[in-house]
Description:
CATH class: Alpha Beta
CATH architecture: Alpha-Beta Barrel
Order of helices and strands: HEHEHEHEHEHEHHEHEHH
Catalytic activity: 2-dehydro-3-deoxy-6-phospho-D-gluconate = D-glyceraldehyde 3-phosphate + pyruvate
GO molecular function: 2-dehydro-3-deoxy-phosphogluconate aldolase activity
Structural class: alpha/beta
Radius of gyration: 16 Å
Number of helices: 11
Mean pLDDT: 92
Bound molecules: 2-keto 3 deoxy 6 phospho gluconate
Low-confidence stretches: 1-12
CATH topology: TIM Barrel
Largest sheet: 4 strands, parallel
Number of domains: 1
EC number: 4.1.2.14
Strand order of the largest sheet: 3-2-1-8
Keywords: Carbohydrate metabolism, Lyase, Schiff base
Pathway: Carbohydrate acid metabolism; 2-dehydro-3-deoxy-D-gluconate degradation; D-glyceraldehyde 3-phosphate and pyruvate from 2-dehydro-3-deoxy-D-gluconate: step 2/2
Amino acid sequence: xxxxxxxxxxxxxxxxxxxxxxxxxxxxxxxxxxxxxxxxxxxxxxxxxxxxxxxxxxxxxxxxxxxxxxxxxxxxxxxxxxxxxxxxxxxxxxxxxxxxxxxxxxxxxxxxxxxxxxxxxxxxxxxxxxxxxxxxxxxxxxxxxxxxxxxxxxxxxxxxxxxxxxxxxxxxxxxxxxxxxxxxxxxxxxxxxxxxxxxxxxxxxxxxxxxxxxxxxxxxxxxxx
Length: 225
Ligand SMILES: O=C(O)C(=O)C[C@H](O)[C@H](O)COP(=O)(O)O
């Protein structure tokens, strides 16, 4: 990239601290994990790092989330966040378990405010201009764009990025190795998220070599963008 995107200028006081954004900007891929059994967290973390990624989002879609966040946070190679966070209580549970960032599917003013109060970076979902303005009003500069493909994918992000020049997106939903470069080629995209390298079937069967292989393929594709 030859030009500097406005979002790379010094961030505001409420923006995520450099740790999260830098780690995401380095790997450019955020695996979104749905774990049924927290005992799989450690081998999964090892498989992801072997494939070249260290940032991971563990979703609150299952009861194993808190234990999985705790287990993965013990691995110093990993930068663990919590996803599908819908309530302030889940923010507290996630942070107590070691989560270093919070991701939400949509924009909840009370979840965002609570994250800011406890000092944990938050990436809320924002799918419309109104929701993006809510994020800006809250002092944020990065949002999840979910479900990315269903909402219009790359053309939609281009259209949204035009008026919101300082906003960065983490498109998630329908992203995979075959299309991630289209997203990562946009200057407004910080990283892409998705489940394709950590599909529930792979995790249930403990197919860690496959997770590593899919992760490495995604990392290689991202490097070409
Ligand atoms: O659970 C959440 O909080 C979400 O927002 C949903 C996930 O990020 C998407 O389901 C990932 O989408 P796929 O990669 O297409 O599977």
